[in-house]
Amino acid sequence: MSTPHTNPDILGDSASWGSFIWISFLVSITLMIVGIFFLPVDWWIRGYMYMGTLFLTASTLTLAKSLRDRHEYERLVNRVKNARTEQVLSQFDRT
Fold it and tell me: Does position 1 have pLDDT exceeding 50, yes or no?
């Protein structure tokens, strides 16, 4: 059995990449909120823009999570199929 340091399935993102992602997200959402606040429009238009920003952000996060979950599911299914294939081949080799 391999250790977590040599198993490519367990390796994750680096700390600097995680920091970059969070900083980018926080800067972009902050700039969007501040930009909407200073728009020279009525309050109801600002509210609509805030609502759109909120829903766009939430749906983007949901889409990203769903795509990741599908990818992980497909990897698991492929591993199970490979294990079954190896089992059948090992039984075939014994005969």
Answer: no
- In terms of Cβ atoms closer than 10 Å to its own Cβ (0-12, 13-18, 19+), residue 15 is exposed
Contacts with 46 (C-beta within 8 Å, 6 or more apart), sequence order: 36, 37, 39
Residue 58 lies in a domain: yes
**What tens digit of pLDDT does each residue of 21-67 get?**
999 999 999 999 999 999 999 999 999 999 999 999 999 999 999 99
Q: In whole angstroms, give the CA distance from residue 75 to residue 10.
A: 13
79 occurs within a structural domain: yes
**Radius of gyration in angstroms for the set of CA atoms belonging to the chain, rounded to a whole number:** 23
Contacts of 33 (CB under 8 A, 6+ apart): 50, 53
- What range does the domain containing 28 cover? 15-94
Q: Report which secondary-structure segment, H or E, holds 54.
A: helix 43-94
